[in-house]
Amino acid sequence: MHLRHRAHWVGNQLFYRGRVVMEKAVKEAAPEADTES
């Protein structure tokens, strides 16, 4: 996939030519969110 030229991240979503093409796995990206210690 050659998306690098026009793709950009907005929050956890990767936009390419005006639409969301990818979404970050928030649970994996933020391990501190589900630690209760």
Output the keywords.
37 residues, mainly beta, elongated
What sort of overall outline do the alpha carbons produce when their principal axes are compared?
elongated
Number of helices: 1
C-alpha Rg (nearest Å): 13 Å
Task: Give the total of beta strands.
Answer: 3
Structural class by SSE content: mainly beta
List the SSEs and their pairings.
Layout (H helix, E strand, L loop, with lengths): L7 E3 L2 E4 L2 E5 L2 H4 L8
In brief:
This protein has about 35 residues and is mainly beta. The chain contains 1 helix and 3 strands; from the N terminus they run βββα.
Structure explained in plain terms:
The chain has 37 residues and is mostly beta strands. It has one domain (1-37). Helices cover 11% and strands 32% of the residues. The protein has 1 helix and 3 strands; from the N terminus they run E-E-E-H. The chain has one helix spanning 26-29, and strands spanning 8-10, 13-16, 19-23. The protein has a 3-stranded antiparallel beta sheet with strand order 1-2-3, with no helix packed on it. Strand 1 (8-10) and strand 2 (13-16) form a beta hairpin. The longest helix has 4 residues, at 26-29. The radius of gyration is 13 Å and the shape is elongated. The termini are far apart. The relative contact order is 0.18. The mean pLDDT is 75.
